């Protein structure tokens, strides 16, 4: 069977996946898995849809959980319910409900959680100490984050910033980071059916105003667009004291930080909360019954508690089931590195990542307008009004 996996070829993650595939083949000698490394998530969905149209879809792939509606609308995927057999319900129930929110719709299960994440706040304990803050205490609220960031921002004699208080990336996945502000402000960006959005609600505008104010009013956050890829680099080089990033960066930060750091849930305003993120396994049409059976075997094998724990420890992604956190390996890991439990604990407050019909177009409408507000081309209210109008237009065919 063919397995598309979203990573640029090379690097440690490829080695880990190769190792897992080889182990699976050893345990299942009748199944041959051809792993195709398909680039970024965006590259992967594009390659999948091209392959589907050309009649050569993979049998299984990891794609964003938010690609679910797109894959259903393209008539590309099979639900797992039937192929998983008698224990399907028990299997689906073994995953965290927060991860299943982006995996099920219309009474069917289309995705199985694999490399899933939430957004967390990383902080540099050395910088906190230097600024006279308690190095063991992260900001718990929006007000605290703003006040702490003011103390943490450093300027040289000419007034140039040498260290920012906080960085929230606004390239790559702006809508996702933005959900880290809208969720704590008590609002969800879309409905469960994926055909309505709430971009112009007052709470959404207020969340965007807070983000803009961090740079314009408080001057504790870089102006303009903050690059997704350079934020961890800025944090590791001491150019920002706090950053918002995926838990998928946990192992990278742990390996490369030359200073003690902490990991915390996102600051609350009206409540705690973060969107979930990351990739699910999908099974594709065109697979014969034997291949479907093999796909289910493979996906079950890759997500067993032991392997979910192994994957989480190796990458920093959140282990996808409560049972994974009960394994001896995970218990030992968390005892030694308690930061790894933060994302799990935040799942109790998590919401589904923005996912709608025509998801890429809807997300682009929101991303473009978020960036327009952050670069001061539009006010937050105008930006969200425009994003809502564009999303309504795109979603009109899906009543």
TrEMBL record:
InterPro entries from the UniProt entry: Bact_solute-bd_prot1, SBP
Chief localization: periplasm
Subcellular location: Periplasm
Gene Ontology annotations for the cellular component aspect, listed alphabetically: periplasmic space
The entry's keywords: Periplasm
Entry superkingdom: Bacteria
Family named by the database record: Belongs to the bacterial solute-binding protein 1 family.
Protein name, per record: ABC transporter substrate-binding protein
Source organism: Methyloraptor flagellatus
């Amino acid at each position: 069977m063919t397995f598309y996996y979203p990573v640029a070829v090379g690097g440690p993650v490829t080695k880990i996946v190769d190792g897992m595939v080889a182990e699976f083949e050893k345990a299942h000698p009748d199944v041959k898995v051809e792993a195709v490394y398909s680039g970024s998530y965006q590259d992967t969905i594009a390659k999948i849809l091209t392959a589907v149209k050309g009649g050569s879809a993979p049998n299984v792939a990891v794609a964003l959980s938010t690609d679910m509606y797109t894959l259903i609308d393209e008539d590309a995927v099979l639900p797992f319910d039937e192929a998983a057999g008698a224990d399907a319900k028990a299997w689906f129930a073994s995953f965290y409900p927060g991860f299943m929110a982006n995996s099920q719709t219309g009474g069917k299960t289309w995705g199985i959680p694999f490399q899933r994440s939430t957004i967390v706040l990383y902080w540099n304990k050395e910088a906190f100490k230097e600024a006279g803050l308690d190095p063991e205490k992260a900001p718990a609220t929006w007000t605290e984050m703003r006040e702490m960031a003011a103390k943490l921002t450093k300027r040289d004699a000419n007034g140039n910033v040498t260290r920012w208080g906080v960085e929230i990336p606004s390239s790559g996945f702006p809508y996702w980071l933005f959900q880290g502000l809208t969720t704590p402000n008590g609002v969800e960006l879309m409905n469960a059916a994926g055909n309505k959005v709430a971009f112009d609600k007052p709470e959404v505008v207020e969340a965007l105003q807070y983000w803009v104010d961090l740079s314009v009013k408080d001057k504790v956050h870089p102006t303009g667009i903050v690059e997704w890829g350079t934020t961890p680099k800025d944090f590791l080089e001491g150019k920002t004291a706090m950053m918002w990033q995926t838990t998928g960066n946990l192992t990278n930060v742990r390996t490369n930080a030359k200073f003690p750091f902490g990991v915390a849930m996102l600051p609350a305003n009206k409540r705690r909360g973060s969107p979930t993120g990351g990739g699910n396994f999908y099974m594709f049409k065109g697979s014969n019954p034997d291949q479907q059976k093999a796909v289910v075997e493979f996906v079950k094998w890759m997500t067993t508690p032991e392997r979910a724990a192994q994957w989480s420890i190796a990458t920093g992604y959140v282990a996808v089931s409560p049972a994974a956190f009960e394994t001896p390996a995970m218990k030992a890991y968390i005892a030694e590195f308690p930061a790894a439990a933060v994302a799990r604990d935040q799942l109790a407050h998590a919401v589904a990542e923005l996912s709608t019909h025509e998801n890429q177009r809807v997300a682009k409408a929101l991303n473009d307008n978020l960036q327009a507000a952050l670069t001061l081309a539009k006010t937050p209210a105008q930006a969200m009004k425009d994003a809502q109008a564009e999303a309504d237009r795109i979603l009109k065919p899906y009543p």
